[in-house]
Amino acid sequence: MRHSKTKIFILLTTIAFISACSATQKNTGEQTKKYKPASKDLYDTIAHMDSILFEGFNNRDLDVQKMIFSTDIEFYHDKGSLTNYNQLIENTRNLFDQNTGLKRSLIPGSLEVYPIKDYGAVEIGTHRFCHQENGKDDCGYFKFVHIWQKKDAKGQLTRVIVMTTKVADK
Predict the structure, then answer these.
(1) Is 52 exposed, middle or buried (0-12, 13-18, 19+ CB in 10 A)?
(2) Per residue in 34-47, pLDDT tens?
(3) Over pLDDT 70: what percentage of the chain?
(4) Domain check: are 51 and 20 in the same one?
(5) CATH number of the domain residue 74 falls in
């Protein structure tokens, strides 16, 4: 009888392990599906707003930043801290004044946009910031989450979360 219980235990453990592996493979497969926007119009609008924001950034145009950032913005950075509108504008002004040639580029294929009902959209992607140091590009890669609120005919950024994924090109 004891031998049968051991066999049953081993059989049930094996089935549970195989089931867990199958579920993991299914979940992993689901995560690697190619992104397709729920709304092409919304995707195009947010991609356009993103390009305006960072064209302004790359050209050191503080007025564009002020227009895009909501006055109640919360800006979170994993290497920094929580920043509000006034701090963000002051930090951006100081960065522009340093004139390090810092440029942002969106990593092609990384942009995803998801609607937020009755509010706006979530933008997720990866971007790279580079400047010249000692004659070479010094770059950092960052995943970001932007929360856009639709206001009138335009959108404003109300929340930004930035996470460092890789520092320096090798």
Answers:
(1) middle
(2) 899 999 999 999 99
(3) 79
(4) no
(5) 3.10.450.50
